[in-house]
Amino acid sequence: MTTATVREATEALLRTLGMTTVFGNPGSTELRFLREWPDDFRYVTALHEGSAVAMADAYAQVTGRAALVSLHSAGGLGNALGTLYTAARNHAPLVVIAGQQTRAMLPGDPFLYAKDAATFPQPYVKFSVEPARAADVPRAIARAHAIATTRPFGPTFVSIPEDDWDAEAAPFHPRRVIDDQTGSPALLDEVALALGGARAPAIVVGAGVDRDGAVESVIRLAERLTAPVWASALASRCSFPEDHPLFAGALARTRSRVREMLAPNDVVVVLGAPVFNFHVHTEGAFLDAATTLYQLTDDPDEAASAAIGTSILTTLRPAMARLLERIPTNGRPLPAPRPRPLVAPGSGVSIAALLDTLAQTMPREAILVEEAPSVHTTLHDTLPLQPGRFFTSGSGSLGYGLPAAIGAALGAPGTRVVALIGDGSSHYGIQGLWNAAQLHLPITFVIVNNGGYGAMRSFSELLGFEHTPSMAVAGVDYLALARGYGVAGVRVERRADLHQVLRDGFRSDGPVLIDVVIEDEAAKLY
Hints:
Elements lengths: L3 E2 H12 L3 E4 L6 H4 L7 E4 L3 H15 L3 E5 L1 H17 L4 E7 L27 E2 L7 H12 L7 E6 L6 E2 L15 H12 L4 E5 L1 H5 L3 H11 L3 E3 L15 E4 L4 H8 L4 E5 L20 E6 L2 H6 L4 E4 L2 H11 L24 H11 L5 E5 L4 H7 L7 E3 L8 H11 L5 E6 H4 L5 H8 L3 E7 L4 H10 L14 H8 L2 E5 L2 H13 L4 E6 L9
Parallel strand pairs: 2-3, 2-4, 4-5, 5-7, 6-7, 9-10, 9-12, 10-11, 12-13, 13-14, 15-16, 15-17, 17-18, 18-20, 19-20
Antiparallel strand pairs: 1-8
Helix pairs in contact: 1-5, 3-4, 3-14, 6-11, 8-11, 12-19
């Protein structure tokens, strides 16, 4: 049998799997993997391991392919755990590899040793292993790829001792794993019958619809039923065009408000979303007793954790096709589109004014990456989102947004990316500006500058908490930070200037940062 080094066998495998773009932050335990770097591979150097994972997360979601991340032993993996948690919640198909010390040194607990390396990233990886033999590394990576790209998608992990790369290994050719499963036909027919006979059906969509390429089918289903479509609260992707007449808005994040919002509906079908995504606890029933709920999802955990209704494990595209075959058009006209909220006048820039101006100026084909907690509740009302062009963190853990914009721009070359980032959030991944400058990416970074953690200030007020530590982040010069990383910037304080500054920023052929000073106002959270 022909043999090669583990590194050569792995490079051949990665070509076959289409993973020749590698996101990483290098260290000494990765050098044998990185030496003699192939000309057809691209290595994207992040200045922080968390940024590397966030870049890869967005890149994988935009391209629809698994992405490879290379981290440095236990310390590097530890730095990345926050965004690895987000990748798990985003169902991003990632293969994460991390260096380990030389095998001969492991019994002595050496410097840079990763103790229980395969355990460290759990439970936020679907599969985790440190191969028992060097020769098993290519096969372990192939297995990690297969599991990462099997529904529900998610990150996997392989720990690799640094001397394994020079050991011998036979070439490994991955098998095909087909994962387009369809739920029980009888149960799907039950859903179709319930929807077809419903007095007032409603649809709730989550990130799984966009991820599965089922948006057009959901639009057809909603129009056939003339059913309102709600976005699941805090969904990481947009799964229904929010300027469509049937879009009803985003569900609330509390049990009591969701029950109120869905009270008019006798049948609710939840597609690719949890039942439901809550943030603050309230007591009471989840839905009115007269409301029947069905959930269609590819995530067994999401199905098992649902408190009410019937859950059907299925890929959404074939499930939607079966529903459409069995549900007739009711012939009712579509309602008028929801009116957009009026923006209160003023000379300063409010959050509503910023989102309204973005809606007027942002190129329709642009990709929006968002990590600004203060804008969540008004985002769906004021800035209509579009499927395939919106990405945010599904975890609530900060550090995703700014570097994710880099990954999105790399995954969709030539497409304008708009990164809507809170000033507090920006500090978790600000070093990503360096990547944007070095790669000359068409990204407009819009900093929502409300002087600190505005969402936390509002939470404190909402809960009636007094005498909390200051949530302010004052005295930061974002334009100086941008210049330091090689990105041009401009500051906006007056509403009258915002429209033109945004337009200019969207026309820039490279990255630009716009520091938008938000007038003093409480963030509306619920």
